[in-house]
Design brief:
By secondary structure, the chain is α+β, with helices and mostly antiparallel strands. 63% of the residues lie in helices and 9% in strands. Strand 4 and strand 5 form a beta hairpin. The two termini are 23 Å apart.
């Protein structure tokens, strides 16, 4: 919205400096006294300005100086001074200035009842003008002008209050938006860390077990491939972890928003899985095409997590990955492991992460029994252009 952009550009309304609470009233006192003497020259039939009149003129500026702490007594005192000025038949003039400023201050602080209530005092003073000071001329023109000034002051005060409320709402919405985006970023980074660490550490664990088993059977010629697989998996894990840590470092250049891995890297995932003793086959159906970056990353991470679960829990020897590009993107991973009942399967961080990734893009994840004997994980996500990344 326009005011949200304004709130971010201009910032919140600044506090009035303390010195302004001294200079402002002093300036208004000079204007009120000087302006009232000047206005009295063109108004016949009004009471001459005397010591009492000057005292009434000073009530408004003095009240303004005290309004920082006591806004309600200040606006009431200023309104009473204006009412007394009018009732005693003094000439119309800038006696309203300090009262108008106090009206704006009270309404801006949410003290509408005080501002609107104090507005009755000048009205009462104008009504009593002809009775208290019979020599002063009472007129509908003067009364209408006075009421108009009151309404203008109140209208300006309400506009100032509305502007402050608008900026406050925009700042609150902006803070909530920033907090929401930060939460989403933290969740995304947590998912990435889980997927990277879980996948590579699972492969390292399997290969370490293989190397230990072969070394105990005195087959050193088979130990070297297992150690090489451990080295490669750990190197890739460190590389991905560094890219994620770079996102969290504020003293570095912003990390690229494009994902570091895509479905095009499935070949590396297949090779690592084969090194862990899992034969993985990849098949594609439909018209293969360029996917939105967010969908490409999510699909790869879902496949990676599903393969990780197969390596860790399924005791499988074979897995199949199917990518269906017919309408939306459907990714299927199934294995020939011991099998798991989808209805009693314990949902951990891995399955939750896959589900959250798919739902964030408007998709879903489904768990079923696989014809191969194990578990089948199917994830469907919109693959059209315009999916947010």
């Amino acid at each position: 919205m326009p005011w949200e952009r304004d709130a971010q550009t201009w910032g919140p309304p600044r506090r009035v400096p303390r010195i302004a609470w001294v200079i402002g009233p002093l300036f208004l006192a000079i204007i009120s006294i000087g302006g009232s003497f000047g206005a009295s020259r063109g108004q016949a039939g009004t009471h001459d300005i005397d010591a009492l009149g000057i005292a009434l003129l000073l009530v408004g500026p003095v009240s303004l100086a005290l309004a920082r702490r006591w806004p309600v007594p200040a606006v009431i005192a200023a309104g009473a001074a204006v009412g007394g000025w009018l009732a005693l038949g003094y000439p119309y003039g800038p006696v309203f200035l300090a009262y108008a400023v106090l009206t704006v201050i009270c309404v801006a602080r949410g003290l509408r009842w005080a501002a609107w209530g104090a507005a009755a005092l000048p009205v009462l003073g104008q009504i009593a003008r002809g009775w208290v000071a019979p020599e002063a001329k009472w007129s509908w023109t003067g009364t209408g002008g006075m009421v108009a000034w009151l309404l203008v002051a109140l209208a300006v005060a309400e506009l100032v209050r509305a502007r402050r409320d608008r900026f406050a709402a925009a700042r609150t919405a902006h803070r909530e938006s920033v907090a929401r985006r930060e939460g989403e970023e933290r969740l995304l980074i947590a998912q990435e860390l889980h997927d990277v660490v879980a996948h590579h550490m699972s492969l390292i664990n399997v290969q370490a077990g293989v190397a230990l088993h072969l070394s105990q059977r005195e087959k050193p010629e088979h130990v070297e491939p297992a150690l090489r697989a451990i080295r490669d998996a750990s190197s890739e894990a460190l590389a991905e972890l560094r890219s994620l840590v770079d996102v969290l470092r504020s003293d570095r250049a912003p990390a690229p928003r494009a994902p570091t891995v895509r479905l095009a890297a499935l070949g590396d995932l297949v090779e690592r899985s084969k090194a862990a003793g899992l034969d993985v086959r990849v098949s594609r159906t439909g018209t293969q095409r360029e996917l939105p970056a967010a969908v490409d990353l999510a699909a790869y991470r879902i496949v990676q997590e599903a393969i990780t679960n197969v390596v860790r829990h399924a005791y499988a020897t074979r897995a199949a990955i199917t990518l269906d590009y017919d309408s939306d993107l459907t990714v299927t991973v199934e294995d020939n492991g011991h099998g798991a009942n989808p209805e009693t399967l314990v949902v951990g961080n891995g399955i939750s992460g896959m589900t959250e990734r798919a739902r964030a893009l408007g998709g879903s994840v489904r768990l079923d029994r696989s014809p191969l004997g194990g578990l089948r994980v199917s994830a469907s996500m919109p693959a059209r252009e315009g999916v947010s990344s």
